[in-house]
Design a protein that fits this description.
Layout lengths: L13 H9 L2 H10 L14 E9 L5 H9 L7 E11 L4 H18 L7 E11 L6 H18 L7 E4 L5 E2 L3 H11 L5 E6 L9 H24 L12 E4 H6 L10 H10 L5 E9 L12 H10 L6 E2 L2 H11 L2 H6 L2 H10 L2 H9 L2 H10 L4 H11 L2 H16 L2 E2 H11 L10 H12 L4
Parallel strand pairs: 1-2, 1-4, 2-3, 6-8
Antiparallel strand pairs: 4-7, 5-8, 6-7, 9-10
Helix pairs in contact: 7-10, 7-11, 7-18, 7-19, 11-17, 15-16, 18-19
């Protein structure tokens, strides 16, 4: 199906007109402000649909493999729909367009073998997307927006769950039932991060698995270091491993059009109000393969590690997170503080952190937050609304560039485990360190 953009000169389809006239008011308002295109799917949504899985697909070699993994999952209590957005830009090469056509043909042939109304696969062909925005963010947005429309059309906007997945992923057999169970068990959660593990052995070259081991260790080390520092918004933000309520998606303005990092920016909006959770009882298995389709991310990082002449991956200095802990443990005190207390606090701060806070106008920010709040709990929430995940990342980069430099991921990861009182052999390599982090973050003894 070719994608039809919403423009002032393009009349809406009859179905879109009915949607605008009869849809949920918040949904209608969302599409007026943030909509990119008309409804793309003619087929009616299943009246019992509860999970809609959105898969962006660009230049993928094995889309049916990803669909097969979902098909082989245990069936949840609700109907499941999959929306695959096969996308390309107005400047995509002939080879990319050819492989996209092959993906569509293969997916149609695969899905045509099954006649199951409770497990439907829908394909959207989003060709010729504007070069400025074409990419994974816009592809996810097209599919997630479509999911909102479909939930709303059958009166399930309030309960429907949008799941993000990728066209090169696999998953455990309990993937669907655990997502359904999780959102039923946490009725107030706006969304969740889903546990993931890259394969560490297989048909790729040995060096690929070495690189993905170090990169995943870097991801887990960063989240765990943020938690050690005491930041309340420390979650993995992996595009193929997240799920969100349709209502929360709309409330936060939907997915962005970023060509990379779309997952991080989107999830920060969902995480910020509170109640965000982790789903650790199942597993997404992302591909470890090299890719240059986005300017950064897993595939890009693996490629750079393979091309590097260095011995391993460098990561953020642990001392940066230790210094952050000096700030985050004082948030409650700052609510009661005055100018003298704030000045004393800054004088007691480690040098790197103190310089950064001064550059960010710390005293003025804290004073303004205090004026806007009447109790410590609200102050804390507003404080971390200012010193959010973006500000945290900004400081870590500042500390790395201005004070501590980079350090090998194995060194930082090993030292953090010591601070967490997790025993690890001093000679443990990246794979053993990664296993320790996996066990901790999945809640395993």
């Amino acid at each position: 199906m070719r994608l039809t953009k919403e423009t002032n000169s393009t009349p809406a389809t009859e179905r879109s007109r009915r949607f605008v006239e009869s849809g949920n008011s918040s949904v209608v308002s969302y599409f007026k402000r943030f909509g990119f295109c008309d409804s793309q799917l003619a087929a009616e949504a299943h009246p019992d649909v509860g999970l809609i899985i959105v898969i962006p697909c660009f230049d993928e070699p094995d889309l049916p493999g990803s669909l097969r993994a979902l098909r082989e999952c245990q069936s949840p209590g609700c109907a499941v729909e999959i929306i695959v957005v096969v996308n390309s830009s107005e400047h995509s090469s002939c080879d990319v367009l050819k492989r996209n056509r092959e993906s569509i043909a293969a997916a149609r042939e695969w899905s045509g073998r099954y006649q199951d109304s409770r497990f439907a696969v829908h394909l959207i062909e989003a060709k010729g997307l504007p070069r400025k925005h074409a990419g994974v963010g816009l592809a996810r947005k097209i599919g997630m927006d479509e999911a909102v429309r479909r939930f709303d059309s059958v009166g399930r906007f309030g309960s429907g769950i949008i799941v993000c997945y990728d066209a090169d992923c696999l998953c455990d057999a309990n993937y669907l039932v655990e997502i359904e169970r999780h959102f039923n068990h946490y009725p107030e959660t706006p969304g969740c991060s889903i546990y993931f593990e890259h394969p560490l052995a297989g048909p790729e070259e040995t060096e690929v698995y070495r690189a993905i081991t170090e990169y995943e260790l870097h991801l887990r080390y960063y989240v765990e270091a943020c938690r050690y520092a005491g930041h309340p918004h420390a979650f993995h933000t992996i595009g193929s491993s997240m799920a969100v309520r349709a209502s929360a998606y709309v409330a936060q303005g939907g997915m962005n059009k970023r060509q990379a990092g779309e997952d991080f920016y989107f999830l920060q909006k969902v995480i910020q109000p509170g109640g965000f959770t982790e789903l650790n009882s199942t597993r997404v298995i992302p591909s470890p393969r090299v890719s240059d389709r986005v300017p950064f991310g897993t595939g890009k990082a693996v490629g750079e590690l393979l091309a590097s002449s260095s011995k391993g991956m460098m990561s953020y200095p642990l001392q940066a997170f230790v210094e952050l802990g000096c700030l985050f443990t004082e948030v409650a005190i700052l609510f009661e503080a005055d100018e003298l207390v704030e000045k004393d606090f800054l004088n007691r701060c480690p040098g790197c952190l103190a310089r950064f806070l001064c550059e960010q106008g710390f005293s003025a920010q804290v004073a303004e937050i205090r004026r806007q709040t009447s109790n410590a709990e609200t102050f804390r929430k507003r404080f971390f609304g200012w010193f959010n995940a973006f500000m945290l990342m900004k400081f870590v980069h500042f500390a790395r560039d201005q004070e501590f430099g980079e350090e090998p991921i194995e060194l930082g990861a090993r030292d953090l485990l010591k601070l967490l009182n997790i025993k690890i052999n001093e000679q443990a390599d990246a794979s053993r360190l990664l296993e320790a982090y996996r066990q901790k973050q999945r809640g395993m003894p």
